[in-house]
Design brief:
Elements (H helix, E strand, L loop, with lengths): L1 E6 L4 E8 L2 E9 L1 H4 L7 H22 L9 E7 L3 H18 L3 E5 H7 L16 E6 L4 E6 L6 E5 L5 H11 L6 H9 L33 H13 L7 H29 L4 E5 L6 H14 L3 E3 L2 H4 L4 H12 L22
Helix pairs in contact: 2-3, 4-11, 5-6, 5-7, 5-8, 6-8, 8-9
This protein binds 5'-O-[(R)-(carboxyoxy)(hydroxy)phosphoryl]adenosine.
Length: about 350
């Protein structure tokens, strides 16, 4: 089965070709430079840029995979969640191509793409022995713990009650004047800094108070207090911004707080649920400190950790085609969505 994947849910225009689930090409065009002056993604700019770039990106993906259009067996496209106007560009292109080539089209949930990216490589994906699996999903807009008893079975067991981890990094970086996106720039600037110089809150540490959510409080995240703590710290110590070494320590401490808050909840989840493996997926899973912490946890608990290769961590289309292939291999037929759905929820597979 040769699949073309298309992803345009936010600010990456991406296309990829997979042969029997093995990645043959994975082209990603990032719009970061276009959005950076505004400190975040501007939907109108994003969709206009997708329109311009997507045809060329699809051609490049097919060319790099040595795959002519008539060899394609199907198309997989992200149809949610994401920015409506951006999703529409990829969805419309995928739909038109599938009709023109008379091949099936299937819609993929963006987070399913991130989750199954941990199984993708230049070889066919192997899922045996990985389930039950706990997944920490950390993208720009989401922070969730998803317990998967089997492929296609999703139980959300914890989530952020305010900001996502990626958002905390992006907003923290903006506050410190480091630019956008925050994750990579924070990781770079924190290099060599003392991560214990400033003790930042880890979110929901203090028990007590009202708890109105259905989730176990110990498995939930909160990052809005962390951002406020950073603001207060800088307001109280304005000289820190001009002192390179103190600033590096501050940033390293902020990054440490984000990574630690995530790793602690993963450890609690592994204690509570029976897991054959655990995984971390989404843009923030690129973070070196987080990867190290999860690696240490894996050795401590003796539970294997699955991480995507760096090019598959941030938004890409290989993960979209990969998720479609894995779902199809498990007996779920391709389903063409009628429209995009910016608020699409993760649903269990029926096949
Ligand atoms: O998954 P993703 O590419 O896009 C969404 O689907 O949201 O994630 C983007 C997020 C941004 O918040 C960005 O700051 C973060 O991933 N990120 C990182 C790193 N690279 C990207 N966070 C921490 N460390 C990194 N190296």
């Amino acid at each position: 089965m040769i699949l073309l994947g298309i992803e345009t849910s936010c600010d990456e225009t991406a296309a990829a070709v997979l042969v029997d689930g093995a990645v043959r090409s994975n082209i990603i065009y990032s719009q970061i430079a276009k959005h950076a002056p505004y400190g975040g993604v501007v939907p109108e700019i994003a969709s206009r840029d997708h329109v311009k770039k997507l045809p060329g990106i699809i051609k490049e993906a097919l060319h790099n995979a040595h795959c002519p259009y008539d060899k394609l067996g199907g198309i997989a496209v992200t149809y949610g969640p994401g920015l409506a106007s951006s999703l529409l560009i990829g969805y419309s292109a995928a739909r038109a191509l599938s009709q023109r080539l008379d091949i099936p089209l299937t819609g993929v949930h963006h987070h399913e793409g991130h989750i199954y990216s941990v199984f993708l490589s230049e070889n066919q994906p192997v899922l045996d022995g990985a389930f039950p699996m706990m997944v920490l999903l950390v993208s720009g807009g989401d922070t969730k713990l998803v317990y998967m008893k089997a492929p296609g079975h999703y139980e959300i067991v914890g989530q952020t009650i305010d900001d996502a981890a990626g958002e905390a990094l992006d907003k923290g970086a903006l506050l410190l004047g480091l630019g956008y996106p925050g994750g990579p720039v924070i990781q770079r600037t924190a290099e060599g800094g003392n991560p214990h110089a400033v003790r930042f809150p880890r979110g929901l540490d203090n028990v007590g108070g009202e708890w109105k959510y259905d989730f176990d409080r110990k498995l939930c995240f909160s990052f809005s207090g962390l951002k406020t703590a950073l603001l207060y710290h800088v307001q109280k110590n304005p000289e820190i911004i001009r002192d390179e070494s103190a600033k590096r320590d501050l940033i390293a401490s902020y990054q440490e707080a984000v990574a630690d808050a995530l790793a602690v909840r993963v450890e609690r989840a592994l204690e509570k649920y029976d897991c054959a493996s655990f995984a971390c997926a989404g843009g923030v899973s690129l973070n070196k400190v987080l990867r190290e912490k999860l690696g240490t946890l894996s050795r401590k608990c003796r539970i294997p950790l699955k991480l995507s290769s760096p090019r598959l961590c941030t938004d890409n289309a290989a993960m979209i085609a990969g998720a479609a292939y894995i779902k199809w291999s498990a007996g779920n037929p391709f389903v063409t969505p009628e429209d995009v759905n910016p608020n699409l929820r993760l649903e269990n597979w029926s096949g």
